[in-house]
Write the structure tokens for this entry.
Amino acid sequence: MKRAPTHSYPGLNLGRRHPGADKATEVVSFGFWVFLMSDLVYFGLMFAIYITMIDAQAGGPGPHELFDLTSIFAQTLILLTSSLTVGLAMLALKYNLPRSRIVMWFGITLVLGLSFLVLELRDFMAMAEKGGVPQRSGFLSAFYGLVPLHGLHVAAGCLWLVVLGIQLRVFGLTDVLMSRVVRLALFWHFLDLIWIGIITIVYFGGLTYG
Amino acid sequence: MDNLTEMHRRERRRYVVGYGGSLVLTLIVFIIAYVFGIKTTGVYLTIGLLGLAQLIVQLVYFLHIDRRRSSREDLDLVLFSTLVLLIIIVGTVWIMGNLSMRMHTYPM
């Protein structure tokens, strides 16, 4: 079976074009999955707190006054598209496309990540203007414990992208760098999964039962 | 060489299919939300199931988790974490909901 790709760890495999990077990635990639899953448990706790706090609005503003579905829709599309572009960046890296293509896809991913953060911050500011601040009620505390936590992860991903960009410029495409890029892509896709949980449970769940 | 470029195309198609699938599911969810309004449990259940479907689409097409033998260990890891997660979430909601009911703060 010549066509079957060597697939020795989760996520996109670098394959035989980069044997060094492929080997370096195998173990750390699994370790990174273990980290992602423990991060998932942390998010799960915040989700559980939010679900129990949906009714605890203490007379303060609730989901119907605070949530802006149009903005949420835009953020969803932006994050989803960035998940595609980070995948395309990985492929450009794997198949030795010109460096400009790699930089372009990572650049688009960074811009999308930053615009997601801008929209999210705008939402939080609009919420705060309507009195939706964390200390107002248990519901809002739970909301601000969960959604900005995801935003913080996205911000960390953006910082990571910038650092990798600098490393790419200084060291070139080394095996270690490629292995880091593989993990960044895993992290980015993972954040998109969490976001699906957030729109389903925090926003739609809040609007249904809040 | 040719084989590799063909693989490139195949892997790129995988990402594009995953993106298209997620996009369609997202659009359906928001269309349902706008058309039917988000009030009844039935609508919410539909949205929840579509969300779950999107999670699976992204796990398979973006994160390459599937039932192939080589990625089965990672599938085990994901499934075990999901089990832990469900115990935490369902347990919390159950206990706190029950407590809330006994404290007579739960709207009856």
Remarks:
- Chain B touches chain A through 55 residues (CB under 8 Å).
- Residues 1-64 of chain B form one domain.
- The CA atoms of residues 32 and 43 of chain B lie 8 Å apart.
